[in-house]
Amino acid sequence: MPEKLAPARMAELDRQWGFTKTGNSEVAAQWLLMAVRSGYQPAFDRLERFLIEVGRRKFVKPLYAELAKTPEGMKRARRIYEKARPGYHPITRATVDALLK
């Protein structure tokens, strides 16, 4: 799958397969990474819930790293992380702290 898709294509895929609503963390993490890269706004509420609910480093690190690539994304990442940080393992906190410093 390409790194970035047009938001209209993301919406089409989401309508067909329901990726934004998936309960599978592996699928959700990859979909949300694509959503951040593609600027697919309809998945951003799910992104926030995912980052708060799922504290596994392997899932959250790539998402925060992708968000941190733009000023708007960094702002969003810091806002979400403020809510999510207390629930993260200390190793995950240290990783994300370094990404969002």
Task: List strands and helices in order, with pairings.
Layout: H1 7-17, H2 25-38, H3 44-53, H4 57-67, H5 71-84, H6 90-99
Helix pairs in contact: 2-3, 2-4, 3-5, 4-6
List key phrases describing it.
mainly alpha, 101 residues, 6 helices, 0% strand, Serine Threonine Protein Phosphatase 5, Tetratricopeptide repeat, globular
Protein model, in words:
The chain has six helices and no strands. With 101 residues, the protein is mostly helical. It has a single domain, classed as Serine Threonine Protein Phosphatase 5, Tetratricopeptide repeat (Alpha Horseshoe), CATH 1.25.40.
CATH fold topology: Serine Threonine Protein Phosphatase 5, Tetratricopeptide repeat
- Silhouette: globular
Sketch the topology as an H/E string, one letter per element.
HHHHHH
In the CATH scheme, the class would be Mainly Alpha
Based on CA atoms alone, the radius of gyration comes out at 13 Å
Average pLDDT confidence is 96
Distance between the termini: 31 Å
| Total domains | 1
Strand content: under 5%
Profile the largest sheet: none
- The DSSP helix count reads 6
CATH superfamily heading? Peptidase M1, leukotriene A4 hydrolase/aminopeptidase C-terminal domain
- Helix coverage percent: 55-70%
Q: Strand pairing plus helix content: what structural class?
A: mainly alpha
Low-confidence stretches: none
